[in-house]
């Protein structure tokens, strides 16, 4: 893990380059080599919304990364708007709709559910261009969490989430290049701990994100009450068209249908309420578990 000194050195180099670029632009403008475009607002004129409470808004964004053998993978970062807490940083070969939901729930299990979520318009975040709603849109709606998407061609709407990616890449990149997805995830986990608990952040008064997150009451979803016992389980539907789930030390077999045999699924468990979703985000079954029966026959959605 790089020391904070090396990280600040990288930041100072980037700042110096930005200042040089701005000064060069001013000189070129004065000498008439650049045509002024007053209709374009300078970046400094934008007033960006900033959440007043931890968990008031999370921002989620994916970025691409290359392993040692130049294999392209994806990293999903989820960051708190108020505290800058990096609540999730997961790596996958390709993020599918169910993977986004699983990462979201894992982050919520550790930090609580947010009142709102902001993402870009990627296919795993919205199905509006396809005339529907994707898994994370359905899930946030069910939980009473306000879902927002950035405006097309307006990356500044996700400035915090996008600003984190180069920082994370710089720190991970200073270590040995990961040869596998597991190695990359281990590097991301180490960076997340360092970023949240050791690295002071200028935008939050030189505190760490963990300190800012703990300093104030947390915002919560405005919708339905979320059960305290909430978990996510991955499984593959067996040849008989069923999956298994352990509840209160008892194993239950849940029928999904032979037509889905072999399909990898994510089970979203909230108390006795269960939803089974394919990796592509298709809702395959919704049921309320009967804890007195080991076998849960196929029912209607």
Structural overview:
This protein has 301 residues and is of the alpha/beta class. Helix content is 30%, strand content 24%. It is built from six helices and twelve strands. The protein has helices at residues 4-30, 97-111, 135-143, 159-174, 181-197, 209-214; strands at residues 58-66, 72-80, 86-92, 116-119, 146-149, 230-236, 242-247, 250-255, 264-270, 273-278, 283-288, 295-296. The strands form three sheets. Strands 3-2-1-4-5 form a five-stranded mixed sheet, sandwiched between helices. A four-stranded antiparallel sheet has the order 6-9-10-11, with helices on one face. Strand 7 and strand 8 form a beta hairpin. It is globular, with a radius of gyration of 22 Å.
| Series of secondary-structure elements, N-terminal to C-terminal | HEEEHEHEHHHEEEEEEE
Taking the sheet with the most strands, its summary is: 5 strands, mixed
Mean pLDDT over all positions: 81
The proportion of strand residues reads 15-25%
Give the end-to-end Cα distance, rounded to a whole number of Å. 48 Å
Give a short synopsis of this structure:
The chain contains 6 helices and 12 strands. The protein is α/β, with parallel strands linked by helices.
